[in-house]
Amino acid sequence: MAVNIVSRESAEALIHEQIMNTVFQDAPKSSILMQLGRKLPNMTSKQTRVPVLSMLPMAYWVGGDTGVKQTSRQQWENVYITAGELAVIVPIPEAVLADASFDIMGEVIPRVNESIGMKFDEAAIFGVDRPPEWQNDIITLARQAGNNVSGGITFDTILAQDGLFGKVEEAGYMVDGVIAAMRARAALRGIKDDASRPIFMPSMQDRTQYTLDGAPVYFPENGSFDATVAQMVAGNWRQLVWAMRQDIETKILDQAVIQDPATKEIVYNLAQQDMIALRVTFRAGFAVPNPATRLNEHRTLVPFAYIEPGTPATTYTATFTVKDSSGNIEGAQIDLNGSILRTDASGQAVFNLRNGEYPYVVKADGYRKQTGTVTINDGAQTPTITLVKSGS
């Protein structure tokens, strides 16, 4: 005889399922650049001026008892930190908030903050969506100084004389940190000593501590590292400065309308559709002042270097020719949005740039400075700058 029971299946609609009151996800990751760089006091306006030593005085030997002492000078320039704005609006129906088993706002805000850190790192390190008023990104600065290393991640490309660290040291700085793509961990584990022993794995039981010549290696987990542009970036990160104009601020909107940025069409009317929207804003800027030092008097070297990917990012040349009414000028300084080169005997200096607009300032002793902008759009550029003598 069949025995009838109230089974779990028949009473499933009445059984209360236990729901964990947390969401299983990675902990929000913050900006690696903000951790490693030097934070300046908060900005009081959109732009902050940082005086930078640009010329060093020089001492001279005096010849004989009646020799004439020579003069020298010291000079400063301004480097500007301009605040760029990051913002996002997250619309949420009020009914969804009311019915949710979790604190949706508590889950959204940390992820928005993480995205802000990612976008800041991408722009400052790799130039991804870099605000036009910002100085060149770290990769562009290093590329103009010749601080790009090819050949993959090997012992020699990192620590040999002309390797990653050597490029930074040539500018007079010690590497205090390295950032790398997550896939670089496997490449580092594959580096072996002369006895074919992995140098990063002393024990299979111990967690591998990644350091290179005493400098810690960081593997950003916020998605900011662009492995199509670099495999590894090393530098003296204290030479990078950043400042906030406005800390991350959140505001709940309930009476606004949300428009499509492209078409300007109203997508949501919050009051009419019983919705709220979380608005998050953040304003900050960065710079690499790169002051003159005895090992880098002309500021053409920079305290950063990088290892290129297997297929280097495409760049195009911008060949500047600087001259006056009588011919080419040797030793003229071209400051291309923070990247500095000096013209050679033919009056030329060559930059290797990715697509974009780059403001420049050209200066030479005894001449008026000249400013302009060069635009790179899938092709080389050959700007010619004619300087006028001071007082003319």
From TrEMBL:
Regions crossing the membrane: none
UniProt-listed InterPro entries: CarboxyPept-like_regulatory (IPR008969), Phage_capsid (IPR024455), Phage_capsid-like_C (IPR054612)
NCBIfam families, alphabetized: major_cap_HK97
Coiled-coil segments: none
SUPFAM superfamilies named among the record's database cross-references: Carboxypeptidase regulatory domain-like, Major capsid protein gp5
Protein's cellular compartments: Virion
Protein name: Phage major capsid protein
Superkingdom of the organism of origin: Bacteria
Cleavable signal peptide: none
Residue stretches making up the Phage capsid-like C-terminal domain: 14-292
Pfam family of the protein (one): Phage_capsid
Source organism (scientific name): Candidatus Gemmiger excrementavium
